[in-house]
Design goal:
Rossmann fold; elongated; five-stranded parallel beta sheet; 353 residues; alpha/beta; 8% strand; two-stranded parallel sheet; single chain; 7 strands
Amino acid sequence: MFHILIDTSVWLDLAADQRQSPLLDVLLDFLKERQAKLVLPRTVVEEFRKNRDRIAKSSAKSLASHFGQVRDAIKKVDGDKRQKEKVLDFLADVDYRIPLLGGAAEGTLKRVEELFDKTEVIEPSDLAKVRAADRGIGRKAPCHHDNKNSMADALLIEMYFEYVEANAGAGQRFAFVTHNKNDFSIANGNSKLPHVDIAYGFSRIKSMYFINLSDCLRRIDPTRVTNLMWELEWDQQPRGLTDILKWMDRLTTMVWHNRHMNWVWRVENGKEKIVSRDEWDAGFARHGYKYSAKHTPIEVWQGALKAARSARKRLGPGVDGYGPYTDFEWGMINGKLSALRWVLGDEWDMLDT
């Protein structure tokens, strides 16, 4: 069994940097498969809860106010109008993407919280507290810096050492993972090595020190983590506002044209009638909306035919154009339009054209 204590700094960085999120998936798999066990001290839980809102807010913070100032400045500057419009469109895209990326951090934070809720929390013993205090008094790492209170870190490392001592045995391996190299790693040297004041508690096999989670997980299953690294290097960006609006407009036209062609079919098959304006006015005055559902003024019909010709010219034929569509393709078109509109604030199933 591989017992892993992960410092709060690592958990918070997993949420702040979405490129690291696949590591959380691998860790959860290892825990589920019982290849690893999470060592969760109370201090980690408390520090995580204290800082989680800060990470969520900072990650989701929009730069709209800053971009607003930049946009105003660009509008006032003389220059090529088309170039200015391109710059303004780009700024709108960036301003739109930042909250989306930040929202992903909230999802990771919630997953970590769910993991914490399912994991047994280790309380600090009196002995660990005394040993942590001794580190502070003796100015030993992680309490070796001036003007810094590192008692929480001292308690964390003592709880780790105590856990290793209590659970050591055949087949048991342990790992301490932190991003806090300044307090835990060797001073003025290889940061992958623990500080000399805590080095006695680590070894190359039984109790290991890591400054990144990927190296730790690689010790459990090198192949799986190595295959994962391409995901960490591939940074998928959300679509920009310009792309979304472009496709919303195209999909709206596709839906409108398909509905128009259904209308044409109903007219050609006698289900609905095209009438003169005078006839329509008289019929509507007599029968109201019941009449208008089956009758259309000729000028409206002619305008619709003209709009349909324009739509076909702009869309072109095919599944990404004006059709024809299979039932599945037609469902996908409506679903895409509904999803894009929902992203920009409409309710689900908003398919008005």
